[in-house]
Specification:
GMP Synthetase, Chain A, domain 3; globular; Rossmann fold; single chain; alpha/beta; 10 helices
Length: 364
């Protein structure tokens, strides 16, 4: 259902003209990270001109209204990201309709200051769309890396749905020390989330400069101390300005999380291209929710078998492994105790994946 909903929303957004290019906002590559969840909630980013606030807000509102008018859409979270008038957008090659995420364009890299001092390596955990388990995987990998004795930080930069506070059962606002934000610490991991800076019920209706400002603050103003590895749970989607911002910090590597469905795999391809374009080393692809084990031990491949592994192979990207569906994982996550910190069957899978990452960044 979400995939056909995305197509209908994309069609509705195509009716809106991008004043900067004169083309529709979809083929102009202004819409990014379009995704829908099973309940019909739609999310996307929209690049708007940052010089003309009124025009930017008008464009965002028109896009929100168009998405909301599509039958089946129950809610819309749109985030405006800014592009300055001087930065004319390149025309996407190969026809805008194949390229709604604007990915054939070379992503713009924001320069956000020097590398994080004291942080030996930084790894992005990315996904083409929301709901594939990216945050769950990032949280558990962080816990597994810490269990190896490494000094680990986890930055939840998912502006749409920060989940780290729930996953680690943390409530409240972080303290400040010497003008820096002091991260929380749980299960041996230093934690910072954009969620700690937001009110829980605050609608995600960020305006472009706010998004960039908040991400910049998360990247630069947190007192991480000495870290062996910082994992960054990035917003879903590819090609967004905030991803470029994160990449400007010289990532040691990136991991792409996907489910086996065909639509998710198209996103894996986009992710691989994005990281290649920005010369970020690709650690590999993790397939999540790969199968459900029956009481007799037989595997049921609910979303198709081996899709992410095939896609990775096709793209020449390493396949790191598969994580099955654990029906009780959602509950464990809601309880604020990552399964990697327990004797749950999933823990071993996360430990193995964490070992691969540690080896990649030469910490094992
Ligand atoms: P994302 O960060 O990609 O949006 P989340 O990590 O928030 O996704 O996961 C979405 C939902 O799926 C959560 O409720 C999470 O508990 C559940 N989930 C993730 N991975 C698994 C898994 N392997 N088995 C069962 N549930 C999972």
């Amino acid at each position: 259902m979400p995939d056909s909903l995305i197509l209908r929303v994309r069609a509705a957004l195509s009716a809106i003209r991008d004043p900067a290019s004169g083309r529709n906002i979809v083929s102009a590559g202004a819409v990014g990270g379009l995704s829908a969840d099973d309940s019909g909630r739609v999310r996307f980013t929209l690049e708007v001109p940052d010089r003309d606030r009124q025009a930017a807000e008008g464009l965002l509102k028109a896009a929100e209204d168009a998405a909301r008018s599509v039958p089946g859409v129950t809610g819309v979270s749109a985030v405006a990201t800014a592009h300055s008038a001087g930065q004319a957008k390149q025309k996407p090659s190969g026809g805008g309709h194949d390229n709604p995420f604007g990915l054939k364009q070379k992503p713009r890299i924001e320069t956000a200051g020097e590398a994080l001092s004291g942080v030996k390596s930084m790894v992005a955990i990315a996904s083409g769309k929301g709901g594939v388990g990216k945050s769950t995987v990032a949280a558990n990998l962080a816990v597994s890396l810490a269990a190896r004795g490494l000094k680990v930080g986890l930055l939840d930069a998912d502006i749409y749905g920060p989940s780290l506070p729930t996953l680690f059962g943390i409530d409240g606002k972080p303290q400040m020390r010497d003008n820096k934000i002091v991260p929380f610490e749980a299960f041996g991991v230093k934690l910072m989330s954009i969620g700690f800076l937001l009110d829980p019920d605050q609608a995600v209706a960020w305006r472009g400069p706010m998004v960039m400002g908040a991400l910049r603050q998360l990247m630069s103003d947190v007192d991480w101390g000495e870290l062996d590895i910082l994992l960054v749970d990035t917003p879903p989607g590819t090609g967004d300005a905030h991803i470029s911002l994160i990449q400007s910090k010289k990532l040691s590597g990136a991991v792409i999380v996907s489910t086996p469905q065909e639509m998710a795999l198209a996103d894996v391809r986009r992710g691989v291209h994005l990281f290649r374009q920005t010369e970020t080393p690709l650690i590999g692809v993790i397939e999540n929710m790969s199968w459900l084990e029956g009481p007799d031990g037989a595997k049921q491949f609910l979303f198709g078998e081996g899709g992410a592994e095939r896609a990775a192979k096709e793209l020449g990207a390493p396949f790191m492994g598969a994580i099955p569906l654990f029906p009780d994982l959602r509950q464990a996550s809601d309880d604020g105790r990552p399964v990697a910190a327990t004797d749950h069957a999933a823990a071993k899978t996360f430990h193995e994946l964490a070992e691969d990452i540690a080896k990649f960044v030469k910490l094992a």
